[in-house]
Amino acid sequence: MQMDRCGSIVRLTSSLTVALIITLAQGFAMAGGRPLTIDDLLAVKGVADPQISPDGDSVVYVVSELDRATDKTNSSLWLVPAAGGEPRQLTTSPGTNNQPRWSPDGKTIAFVSGRGGSSQVWLLPVADGGEARQLTKLPIDVSGPIWSPKGDRIAFTAEVFPGLSPEQTAAKDKEKGEAKSKVRTYDRLMIRHWNAWDEGKRSHLFVADAATGVARDLTPKLEVNTPPGPFGGSEGYAWSPDGKELAFTAEPLKDGAWSTNSDIWVIPADGGEPKNVTASNPGADAQPAYSPDGLWLSFVSQARAGFEADLWVLKAWKRDGSETLDVSSYLDRSVQSYAWRNATSIAAVIDSQGTEPVVVFRLREPAESRDRMTGRPVTGGVSNSLSIGPEATRMAFIHHAANVPAEVYLFEEGKPKASALTSHNAALVSQLDLPAAESFTFEGADRDKVQGWLIRPPGFDPKKNYPVVFLIHGGPQGAWHDEWHGRWNYQSFAAPGYVVVAINPRGSTGFGQRFTDQISRDWTGKVYEDLMKGLDHALEHYPFLDRTKVAAAGGSYGGFMVNWICGHTDRFKALISHAGVFDLVSMYGTTEELWFPEWEYGGFPWDRAEHYRERSPSTYARNFRTPTLVIHGALDFRVPDAQGLGMFTCLQRLGVPSRYVWFPDEGHWIAKPQNRIVWWREVHDWLAHYLK
Fold first, then answer.
1. Which of these CATH numbers, 3.40.50.1820, 3.40.50.1110, 3.40.190.10, 3.40.50.880, describes 438-691?
2. Quick one: average pLDDT of 549-555?
């Protein structure tokens, strides 16, 4: 539950090493354009989910684009030759068209579309350019189709009431919708999660006939979600190479509100009793995948129960039960996602020092040959969504950085570098001045090395002085990456003429697990020291920063730290607190995932009252002096909106200049286009009032 939620290593093949060190900088914006506007940010096309065809010659992917007339997002499928060339649009129906997956013979693409009034699996013939046909016709929405190895079946997920069929689920939904009383009753936690109330339905794994669409719930009585909600997708389940079995991720069967445990289960593809293969691990297990030869079942795993930010280790379990290999823990970097290249090696994305590079692990790599990347530079930007071609000679993935939105990239064995296959945002980016993120390091608490980013404003003139916007990330176990962020976008903060400084202090991920661990039970100690020393370092080493005009902004844990700052220093001209925790005791009683405060604060508030009180911004409200903008969403069940209201109430009662912006239809993040426009307008107006 994040409150918000490397370089050449592991003996990369030489050509892949070269490809990644180059940092995939093709198409990066050059200085000389205009500043980014909110309209530009909303106009950026989302490029995602590339999938290489079985013959390796084509890549299908998804492009999402906001329709300003309807204020809705349309997603469509596109196809591009792996050798390069002009992409072509495969679907034109408005609304949702996403999650494409190739059939094993490469003739058909399964995808999810909402064109029939609900989200169902559709099949699109590729070779003859025919029309898509609807495969599943369930009375409930479905998602995440994946083909069986023989192409005769498709697995997907759908939400049902445990023990009820899709038809019975739809009937019960209709009955509840028509009921005059909307009362909810609960006998156990969680009663709500992120931004939605628990309606009693659970995500189940289905298998459909690829010809008829007739579907079967493989886990009809399962009382929990597979994959765990609300962010799990098709990476949460997989077919065995012989098509006889599926592996899936599921939550714990009890104590879900205060347990981080999730397990990998296997079940016969024809139905039957599921078997838990990771029952011995009290922490979380996720992302199951079979090796191409079927000998291994891999997954990512966390060892410590109750801690959501433990190191994600890639493991491989031999299906005969004889051994389990620890593939990645020596690296001390969490594996974000991965894909098998062949029977002995795995390509993976890791979180490393503010970037997310692609690396290659080998199952039985000798310890002495492993590169522990001590002191090595890292590749720039963020990569994700790996898709491996035949014989592992090609790999498609998404890549983006602080100054360039996401596009599809392709690495080909034997070539010196990866290349961009798409350029959907090139025309827009060419008009803009989007400075790159510059990494710097400094000495933080305990004289530890701490990293941060600096982003100059468009039209930068080294002879001028610029106000500073100091960003604090959420999590708290998160990180500022060299990435194109759809919400907390560096360029949008810098556009009015500010220098952005973003520090990865104690608790940040990607700098070793010890560094991440050091924020737990200490939200206000070393991390605060890191942040202040990082800001001091930037002000001292960059002469163009105006130390008299500095504002701080943060969301979630970042909002907590802004609230803490408000009671502990007056060095800032203005503050912006989004979805920030104000009072730890009331937060415990109203949040949903209880393992989070129990781990982070060291226990229950009735047992750790002094700790909760001493680290609550509410305790220091008498010291509030700095003008503060407070932002919150009514549907934020992670950090309920009473936290923001409490902060604003105290500011008002103390006579501190303040403003409360409350979104009745948003959760922890501000996602709706019109609301995003309002969010940025409020943020920019507040900064301009105090920094200009």
1. 3.40.50.1820
2. 98
